[in-house]
Amino acid sequence: MTILITGATGNIGGEAIRHLLDRQVPLRGLVRDAAKASYLADRGVDLAVGDLSQPETLNAALKDIKTAFLVLPNLPNQVELECGFIDAAKQSGVKQIVKLSVMGAGELPSTFQQWHHQIEQHLERSGMAWTHLRPNMFMQNVRWLAQTIAQTGNIYNAVGDTPISHVDARDVAAVAAICLTEPGHDRQSYVLTGPAAITFETIAELFGRALDRSISYVNLPAADLKAARLAGGEPEWYLDAELELFACWQQGAGTSVTDWIPKILNRSATPYAEFASDYAQTHRQDFFA
Ligand SMILES: NC(=O)c1ccc[n+]([C@@H]2O[C@H](COP(=O)([O-])OP(=O)(O)OC[C@H]3O[C@@H](n4cnc5c(N)ncnc54)[C@H](OP(=O)(O)O)[C@@H]3O)[C@@H](O)[C@H]2O)c1
After folding, report:
1. 33 lines ligand 1 (CB under 6 A)
2. InterPro entries under this entry (predicted)?
3. 139-162: per-residue pLDDT in tens?
4. Can you list the domains of the chain with their CATH numbers?
């Protein structure tokens, strides 16, 4: 039975596709631009061109689908778009949705956590089988820091010396592949973390070692970080939401370590040092000016 993956060209959707192709599962990828996703078609993924902000494009993508993986980036209308997808899926006969959510959904007052919780609740009310994947911050977010590291040798952030249990997106995608294809995950919410909580100072050290260059962590006041990133062109709504989350983290909300990844994957969650070494090898040039 074909599984539909939204966010198929993205971080988690792309990795989930890799795992599912290894399992020889027939796949359809929902993509906005078929040309940009042609590499997926080359690997045997059926491409459906569609956009969650254009609900009329979803019917063809959902035809004959019983199981879907719902992934969407943070957008100002994320709740509306994901809930619209859930309604369209229900109407077209989908039976099961695995949803990419976030750690702290329904618990923290921060915007992203509230939005994801609203979508989770909508999915639960739909009557379809559901699984919520609630990862902590992805280790792969370092991609957003690489250019600054290349230019300055510094990581700038505003989370102080709070440890965070960053998770490898590859582990999250591997869990998604299992939840989409194996029984026993209906009505489950899995908080997914790395094997330890570490500070940004430690991350700077680990990347410094992996890249063989000196990298320091510089903690900024939240207002200074916001001003710098606004000047770099990031939208204010996104920065405000992220800073709300950082404030929660500073009170310890991102520190806990769970054992769902070892339980579901039957192996340890990837440690940051291993991720840094892998990422430094494949993206080395991004960290040098
Ligand atoms: N980053 C973190 O640390 C973190 C941690 C926990 C949870 N999360 C959650 O993870 C989610 C993001 O996952 P990700 O990192 O895999 O995202 P991503 O890499 O940014 O990928 C987003 C994908 O969504 C597609 N897309 C964008 N707008 C779309 C639309 N209107 N209709 C259909 N597809 C659309 C993009 O396709 P195109 O090729 O068409 O652009 C892309 O494939 C967010 O909901 C976030 O809250 C993130």
Report:
1. yes
2. Ergot_Alk_Oxidoreductase, NAD(P)-bd_dom_sf, NmrA-like
3. 999 999 999 999 999 999 999 999
4. 3-134+168-192 (3.40.50.720)
Residue-wise pLDDT for 232-266, tens only, equals 999 999 999 999 999 999 999 999 999 999 999 99
Ligand 1 binding pocket mutation candidate from 4, 56, 69, 72 (most atoms within 8 A of CB): 72
CB of residue 69 inside a 6 A radius of ligand 1: no
d(CA 276, CA 243): 25
DSSP 198: B
Summarize pLDDT for 37-91 with one digit per residue, the tens: 999 999 999 999 999 999 999 999 999 999 999 999 999 999 999 999 999 999 9
Pairwise CA distance, residues 56 & 74, whole Å: 21
- Check pocket membership of 100 for ligand 1, CB cut-off 6 A: yes
- At residue 191, what are phi and psi to the nearest 5 degrees? -85, 120
Cα of 182 from ligand 1 centre, angstroms? 24
With a cut of 90, say whether residue 289 has pLDDT above it. no
Residue among 46, 50, 17 nearest 32 (CA): 50
With a 6 A CB cut-off, is 26 part of the ligand 1 pocket?
no
| Spatial separation of the C-alpha atoms in residues 27 and 6, rounded to whole Å | 11
- Does the beta carbon of 10 lie inside 6 Å of ligand 1? yes
CA-to-CA distance for 141 and 98, rounded, in angstroms? Answer: 22
